[in-house]
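Reminder to self: keep the SMILES exactly as supplied, no canonicalising. Ligand is S-adenosylmethionine.
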Amino acid sequence: MTVRGSSSVMASRREPPDSLDFFPTPPWATRALLVEVLPQVCGHLHLLTAWDPACGEGHMVEVLAEQITFAKGSDVFDYGRGYPVADFLDADTRLRPGADLICTNPPFNAAVKFALKALDEAPVVALLLRTVWVEGEGRYEALFRDRAPTVFAPFVERVPMVKGRWDPDARSATSYAWFVWVDGEPARAPLWIPPGQRRMRTRPDDARRFGVAADAPLFDLVAAE
Ligand SMILES: C[S@@+](CC[C@H](N)C(=O)[O-])C[C@H]1O[C@@H](n2cnc3c(N)ncnc32)[C@H](O)[C@@H]1O
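Structure tokens returned for the bound complex:
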């Protein structure tokens, strides 16, 4: 299913259970992947289709659609946004759209399962996760030892995420990184995503598109560019 980019994501809200870890991604963080990371690791590939299999209300997939011709979303919960409802981890699911890129920020506790499944489904996989995800014996054994990401790309600045909504003014002490795998490409040196992404990649219409009742600071940021 192709995304609908024209309507506000707040149009019809439905509350998911806490266990689903619904933390919408600030739009600028996905644009940073598209501009600062993917061209450097798979610029030679033509990514025609992308899939966020845990798309929530569409905060990430609608941004993917700005650059990728066919961007699709699905989620295990029906947020009332019209995306197909499917459990990405269910081996029997019939939803298999096929994509050049699987890009999402999965629930932290299921992220290894998401990574392994995504690596089976697409040649390029990009996961946005807390930087601490890079460590841990369990994750090393289950994933990183045999399938190290092509690039680990930490944000230099914080990427504030709050439960259930995108708040452009939120602050956070939690650090995030993009973990990107490109089929056939060995691991390379970390790539630091330079500071200033939030400022540079927040767009004037993000507040309308992503349903935030923006206050002055957001528009100050945009006006200052
Ligand atoms: C951190 S949110 C990310 C939402 C969206 N990708 C974004 O960036 O705004 C995690 C999402 O994973 C979804 N989810 C959790 N378990 C899932 C599963 N097994 N299959 C598909 N989606 C799942 C939740 O409903 C939630 O929308």
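Points to follow up:
The chain has seven helices and six strands.
The helical segments are 27-42, 61-64, 111-121, 137-144, 197-201, 206-209, 216-223.
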